[in-house]
Specification:
The chain is α/β, with parallel strands linked by helices. The chain has 3 domains: about 290 residues, Farnesyl Diphosphate Synthase; about 30 residues, no CATH class; about 200 residues, Vaccinia Virus protein VP39 (Rossmann fold). The chain contains 23 helices and 12 strands. One of its GO terms (cellular component) is cytoplasm.
């Protein structure tokens, strides 16, 4: 079974392809509405509700491909609720999932209508031929009824009304639980129930899934409340502390943070107990339950901020001995991701200033390199990434950043930009630098500087990567360095220096930073070989 992180990523990609299939095409009439609908749906997020629906279908032995339209409908309802939640008349939020909220981009009127359209379109999908041709009418009707109840006055909308009425007031635990069981848990529970229904679950299985959904739905909201208190905007993709700002009723406000965590842990145990009679097919539901409750810890692990017995923990599913020393590493990063710390180390080691640079950042992702370049004084940064919706909201809305998403850097040409760049940074994954550099060098000015992050795990062939996706052999590191740097020099980038990155990559992979200059004379073959040997020498060797 693949790790949960990989499973989530695969399901998110699968779902986004399905969203694209079901939503109005880009520019469809009326274009303002279709654009607003697509903007909010494709604004990122973990897709927890549709993923839970698919996992519940899998748990009862159903066909996940057949229920994909229902998973889309679930996300459309959820997205409509976020659009309306963010409106000035409700939570008045400017950011959602790391981007401007819909009403900040399209105006309040179009945002309201986009939410309306997504809500009604969800039921159009539920009643459409993709589902009616595969499921018995009675089963599909029950699933649709479940979605409608969870979204309406007896579910999400009812919870929102009580939530708004409770702002700035002291509330009892019963009222707080009512709010969250309706506003949040209802739709999460419906996702699990609908997955079980369409998957062909028995009455006993459906009852167990209902108990699981109710428990994990409430645990999700408690974890979210704690994150709003303890998290930061970079981790949340929205402004932290908003619940306190609006005087909202939350579990930490009523019970305290530690008691809230304990309550979430008890609900996690209830959810896992509900799955007691399920076989291994429900393992994803078990993993998702733990993920929902432990999101804060997992975010810290993935950011490289947790050490176990002095070693940085890199996998969320790693086993840790009960007696192990677990501690939080270092002060908060000054950048939106730890990639910024890697580039900062390179700028210092290579004595690169970046002041007033016009930079091209390839593989921008969350924007660690972009953030570092801006803090170093860059005048403008073109942030290029093949993905979508990953760049941190602060950078996305910085006038010095030009966002180029859904862009395969391998096919860039000078005609794609209004100017040449005098600084290049590359932090690419799942593709070799040797494939990227021939397209990138023509985009640069003469004497442009470049800093490349060389990742052996993406340079060696698939058969050469070791267990767990780690390249450990120093000989392989040396071969990768020689091949990449020789390729860079062949493209017209003269090698100036290279260092071992002070921060390892995912799962402990060793990575390297290289400093090159366009038009500079290449390092000799012998000098290159000696440098690579020096960089890849084992500690103490």
């Amino acid at each position: 079974m693949q790790p949960l992180e990989a499973y989530l990523q695969a399901q998110q990609q699968r779902l986004e392809a399905a969203f694209d299939h079901h939503l109005p095409a880009p520019g469809a009439d009326p274009p303002a509405l279709s654009e607003a609908m697509r903007y909010s749906v494709f604004a990122g997020g973990k897709r927890v509700r549709p993923v839970l629906l698919l996992a519940a279908t899998e748990a009862v032995g159903g066909d996940c491909e057949a229920v994909l339209p229902a998973a889309c409908a679930m996300e459309f309802v959820h997205t409509y609720s976020l659009i309306h939640d963010d409106l000035p008349a409700m939570d008045d939020d400017d950011y959602r999932r790391g981007q401007f909220t819909s009403h900040k981009v399209f105006g309040e009127a179009v945002a309201i209508l986009a939410g309306d359209a997504l809500l009604t379109y969800a039921f159009e999908v539920m009643a459409g031929p993709d589902l009616t041709s595969r499921f018995a009418p009675a089963v599909l009707l029950e699933a649709t009824h479940c979605l409608a109840r969870a979204a309406g006055w007896s579910g999400m909308v009812g919870g929102q009304v009580v939530d708004m009425a409770s702002e700035g007031r002291e509330v009892s635990l019963d009222v707080l639980e009512y709010i969250h069981r309706h506003k949040t848990a209802a739709l999460i529970g419906a996702a699990v129930t609908i997955g079980g229904l369409l998957g062909g679950g028995s009455a006993a299985q459906l009852e167990a899934l209902k108990r699981y959904g109710q428990a994990i739905g409430l645990a999700f909201q408690i974890a979210d409340d704690v994150l709003d208190v303890e998290g930061d905007s970079a981790a949340l993709g929205k402004q932290a502390g908003q619940d306190e700002k609006h005087g909202k009723a939350t579990y930490p406000a009523l019970l305290g943070v530690e008691a809230s965590r304990q309550h979430a842990a008890a609900l996690l145990n209830d959810a896992l107990a509900a799955l007691g009679d399920f076989d291994a097919g429900a393992e994803r539901l078990r993993q998702l339950a733990r993920f929902i409750v432990n999101r804060k810890a997992q975010a810290l692990i993935l950011a490289g901020k947790i050490a176990v017995d002095g070693q940085c923990l890199t996998q969320c599913g790693a086993r840790v001995a009960a007696q192990a020393e677990v501690r939080l590493l270092g002060a908060p990063s000054p950048y939106v991701s730890r990639g910024g710390e890697k580039l900062a180390a390179g700028l210092e080691a290579f004595d690169c200033r970046g002041q007033n640079a016009v930079a091209l950042d390839v593989g921008a992702s969350t924007g660690g390199f972009t953030d570092c370049l801006l803090q170093a004084g860059a005048r403008r940064v073109y942030a290029v990434d093949v993905g979508y919706g990953q760049l941190h909201w602060r950078l996305r809305n910085d006038p010095r950043v030009v966002v180029r998403e859904r862009t395969n850097a391998r096919y860039l040409t000078p005609h794609d930009f209004p100017e040449r760049m005098n600084f290049l940074t590359v932090d690419a994954s799942f593709i070799s630098l040797r494939l990227l550099l021939p397209a990138l060098v023509p985009l640069l000015t003469p004497q442009a500087e470049a800093i490349l992050l060389i990742k052996p795990q993406f340079e060696v062939g698939k058969g050469e990567v070791g267990k767990g996706g780690v390249v450990r052999d120093a000989r392989q590191h040396r071969q990768v360095l020689q091949a990449v740097l020789a390729s860079a020099q062949a493209c017209g980038l003269g090698l100036r220096a290279a260092i071992l990155s002070p921060l390892s990559g995912p799962k402990g992979n060793r990575e390297f930073l290289a400093h090159l200059t366009a038009g500079a004379p290449p390092m000799s073959q012998r000098g290159l070989e000696e440098l690579c040997v020096q960089l890849t020498r084992e500690p103490g060797g």
